Amino acid sequence: MADGRVGSSISIDELVLLNQEIAALVRAGTPLERGLLLAGRDVRGRLGRIAQAISARMSQGESLLSALEHERDAIPPLYRAVVEAGVRSGRLPTALEGLTRYVRGYSEARSAIGIALWYPILIASVAYGLFLGMSTLIAPRFVDAFPSLGIEPPATLNLISRVGRASHVWWPVGPILLILIVIAWIVSGRAARFQSWAWGLPRLMPGMKPLMADYETANFAELLALLLEHSVPYPAAIVLAAQATGDRAMIAAATLVAAALERGQTPGAALDGVKAGVFQPMLRWAMTSTPDSGSLPESLAGMADHYRSRARHRAEAMRIFLPSLLLVVLGGGAALVYGLSLFLPLVDLLTKLSFE
User: Suppose 227 and one of 10, 73, 129, 237 were both cysteines; which one would form an S-S bond, judging by CB atoms 3.0 to 4.6 Å apart?
Assistant: First the structure.
């Protein structure tokens, strides 16, 4: 690019690698510009180009934060904010290590959700394809065969045949939905996006909403604790932590709370104006404490562990029970469609022929 930017957003895993490299260089006292240049030469692809671009700008006298800001299309605002907090507090390595835990937690949530969704999507795709073939190929032939034998086709067979004849209208819905899920998954893996609109579709799956809410709460609590530990003002920390979740309700509530805090209200009074359910009860209780007490970051970190542990249990339960549930629902539905469109009409046909 003309201005030297890499431009393309890095993935979550690439952000973890870049963060670990910078943290190791800072802790070892190695000049960042030289260390990132060498790392960029060793790593191919987008991550290597970003490391070299940051190194080049720091070699020209820019600070790490300024170099990261120039790569804002590739590196999320959250990362730049944590670097700024670490530099300001003089604890950059600690801040970067805390961010690594947070990003790994996000990646863990994404992997758990992906595993939980994989089998249901596979079953639903197979069932969708079977129904499409049944309604467009088999049912119409049965409907055409009945009159030639002087027998009226069953009503269920006529219905499935009419659905099949209108398949040009509805059959693209399945592939389009599948494509949207794939796009959402790809977008969710971009570090500059984090949990944006891409997580809307998975919430429609049974059991996914509470699972994702637990992961979002865990990440919000951990990030808020990290920012407060590094002297980021409470109002700004709440908004930034909420923005990283991508949950619109939480972002709106955090913005209201931050505005109330800046007007001088206490955290408890500020949270009174937030609708119940936006922040989970334990988190809401912890947020009523003032950051000046010193115990808030510790409490938030403990809650992050609690909600992440609960989310793991939910994900494990989904991996065990959701496939069985879908096997009964989708498999039973497919068997019902087969019975209505193939076996029952065939039995009816043979019965009527035997009495003629």
Answer: 237
DSSP state of 274: S
Residues 37 and 163 in one domain: no
Helix (H, G, I), strand (E, B) or coil at 128: helix
The answer to whether residues 248 and 199 touch, using CB atoms and an 8 Å cutoff, is: no
Residue 82 in any domain: the answer is no
Statement to judge: residues 208 and 126 lie in one domain: yes
**Number of domains within the chain:** 2
d(CA 246, CA 226): 18
- Is there a contact between 32 and 25 (Cβ–Cβ < 8 Å)? yes
Q: 7: which 2 tokens?
A: 């431009």
**pLDDT, tens digit (0-9, with 9 covering 90-100), for 281-312:** 889 988 888 776 667 888 888 888 898 888 88
Measured CA to CA, the distance from residue 100 to residue 15 in angstroms comes to 9
Is this structure's pTM higher than 0.85?
A: no
Helices (H), the chain: 12-28, 32-42, 46-59, 64-70, 77-89, 92-133, 139-148, 155-165, 167-170, 173-188, 208-229, 234-245, 248-262, 267-272, 281-287, 296-326, 332-338, 344-354
Any idea which residue has 């019902």 for tokens?
A: 336
Per DSSP, the three-state class of 10 is coil
Q: What sign does the CA torsion over 342, 343, 345, 349 have?
A: positive
